[in-house]
Design a protein that fits this description.
- It is a single chain.
- By secondary structure, the protein is of the alpha/beta class.
- The chain is built from 16 helices and 15 strands.
- The chain has a 9-stranded mixed sheet with strand order 14-13-12-11-7-10-9-8-15. A 6-stranded parallel sheet has the order 3-2-1-4-5-6, with helices on both faces.
- The two termini are 43 Å apart.
Amino acid sequence: MNKPLEVIIVGAGNRAMIYAQYAKREPDMMKIVGVVDPNPKRRDYARDTYEFSDDMCFESVEELCSHEKLADAIINGTMDKDHVPTTTQLLRKGYDVLLEKPFCINEEEMYALKKVADEENRKVMICHVLRYAPFYNTIKQLILDGEIGEIYNIQLQEHVSYHHTVAAFVRGKWASPVECYAPMLLAKSCHDLDLLMWMMEGATPVSIASFGGDFNYVNEKKPANAGTRCLVDCPMEKECYHSAKRNYLTEEARWGAYVWADFGEEYSDPIYGANPPMEEKIKSLETDNPFGRCVWDCKRDGNVDHQSVIVNFDNGATATFNMTGNTAKGERNIHIIGTKGEIKGVFDESTFVIRKHVPEVTSPEGYTEELIDVNVTGDMTGMRGGHGGGDGRVPEDFVNFVRGEEASIACTSLDKSILGHLAVFRAEKSRKENKMVPMFD
C-alpha cells in the first residue's frame, strides 16, 4: 500500500488515544479519519487533534455502521463489556479491528468473536502490549534462537502496589466483577497469562489449577475504630496508607485519571481525567466520590486481591503465575528455565540475566551469567514508552498486520491471543470450584 491506513477511533479514552498517536509519529502509515464516542468533549478532542470533519464524528457504533464503510480499520478502546458487541458489528461492516484487552469477558464471547472474524474474513489484533515491550520481546527472541534450550518451567509474578490495587480494584471501576464483568485476574493479569502462553508457544496447555481470594479488603478486617470516609469520620486517616487524602490530594497524588474521571465537564480533560480545584476535590471526597470511601467498605462481590495459577502442558512442562495485590512496590518478575540454561529478570528494571550450563572446570559456579539491559534511552517513556515501550509498537504492527506484511514475533492476532484469555477463564473456574480443570472440554 502506498497510502496510510485510514482508522476510526471507537471509544476515545486514554488507551485508544495512546494507540492513535502513531498517526502523529508516522502519518504516512496511519491516518485517523473519524471517532465514535458518546461523550461530545472526547469527540471534539479527537476531531481537533486529527483534523477530520464533523460528519466523521459519531455517538455510537450503531450510528457509524448505518453508513457505508468509511475507513480501513478501527481502534476499539471501549469498556470491557462492550468489546465483543461493538467489534462484531464492526467486523460485519468490513472493518479490521485493533481491540483493547481483555477482548472478551467470558468464553462464550471469546468463541463468538472468533466465529464472526472467521466468517467475515476480517483481521483482529489484541492490545497485549507487553509482548511488544523490548524486555519481553528480547526474551522471546532468545527462546526462539534456542539460547536456553527447551523450556520446561516458567514462573511469572505480578506485584500490584497497594495504591494501584485500591485505585483500580477496590475503590475503582474494576472492584466488582458483577458490575464490571471482569475479575481482577482478567482485568489486570490477562497480560501475564498471555505472556505465559506466548513464551510456551508450541506446547499445548492441558490442565490448570488456581487458588486465591480477598485477603486484605474483606469487611471483617476493617479496624474497629475506622470510619466510613477518610476525610469525614476516620480517626485513623493520618496513619492509614490507604488514606484518600494522602493518595489523592498531596503533591504526590496518584491515579488522578481514575479519581476525578467522572467529576464533570467543567474541569474534565477528555483523555487524562479531570483536574478540579483543590476545594472541589476535597468536597468530592467528603461526599459522593467513591474514592473517598474506606477501603474496607467497598463492594467487592467476591473479587480477589491475590491469586496463584498452575498450568500443565502436553510436553510435560509446567508454569506458574502469581498475582499479588497490596504490595509495597509494583513490579513484574520472570524466570524461565530451559534444558541449557535460564533467564531471570525484572520487567520494571528492564534487565534480565541469562545463565548457561558450563563444565565446572571452566566455571567454579558451574554456569556463566550475562546481564542484558534493554532500557534504551528515550524508549521507555514518552510517546512509545507506556508499558515498558510496548504501547507505541502495537499500532505499528497492526498496520503491517492489516496490510498483509510479515508479522512480528509479537503479533497478537486473535487466534494467537485466545489461549491467554482461556487460561484466565479456566483459572477462575478452578478457583471457584476448588479443583483442577481441563483447559479444553
